[in-house]
Amino acid sequence: MKKELCSQCGKHEIAIKKRRLCRNCYARLHRNGQLDGCGGTNTGVNVTSPRFRREVDFAVSFFDSTEDYLYEPSVFFVPEHGRYTPDFFDKRRGVFIEVVGSKQALSANRKKMEAFVEHYGNGILFEVRNTQGEMIKLEARKYIKKSS
């Protein structure tokens, strides 16, 4: 059986199947910030994977050019929820933006987004928008644990 080789260097066997990369190339690309969330290299919004269609639609309708934003700019740690990566950073306004494509997506991620706002709210501007760019109100709520 023929072993598949890395799509970047073509020398080493694939270790990260999702990205079709060997360990060396994956480490280099990760270190240089050249990886995106879909399994390729970081190409901004030129991602053609259907998984990212909502982000593509949003970027086309909301931003004037690719120079106006960063795609998946930072990873934040949110206590009790783990890692969180907003979809965009609007360079013009200094605002992180999360794009939600449906009410179900909003409902599924609401607690994590609210915890993000509550934890980082004093130093970070954050918006939730739909794919057409319309603002969605997100209220930080206190989640009170019931005592036994």
Task: Describe this structure as you would to a colleague.
This protein is of the alpha+beta class and 148 residues long. The protein folds into 2 domains: 1-42, no CATH class; 50-136. 25% of the residues lie in helices and 16% in strands. The protein contains 3 helices and 7 strands, in the order ααβββββαββ. The protein has helices at 23-31, 53-62, 103-120; strands spanning 69-71, 76-78, 82-84, 88-90, 95-99, 125-129, 135-136. The strands form 2 sheets. Strands 1-4-5-6-7 form a 5-stranded mixed beta sheet. A two-stranded antiparallel sheet has the order 2-3. A hairpin with a 4-residue loop joins strand 4 and strand 5 (95-99). The radius of gyration is 18 Å and the shape is elongated. Mean pLDDT is 77; it is low at 38-51 and 140-148.
Estimate percent helicity.
Answer: 25-40%
Low-confidence stretches: 38-51, 140-148
* Integer-rounded radius of gyration: 18 Å
How many beta-strand segments?
A: 7
Q: What kind of sheet is the major sheet?
A: 5 strands, mixed
Overall SS class: alpha+beta
> How many domains, in number, for the residues?
2
> So what's the overall shape?
elongated
**Average pLDDT value?**
77
In what order do the strands lie side by side in the largest sheet?
1-4-5-6-7
**H/E element string?**
HHEEEEEHEE
Percent of sequence in beta strands: 15-25%
Amino-to-carboxy terminus distance:
60 Å
Number of helices: 3
What labels would you give this structure?
3 helices
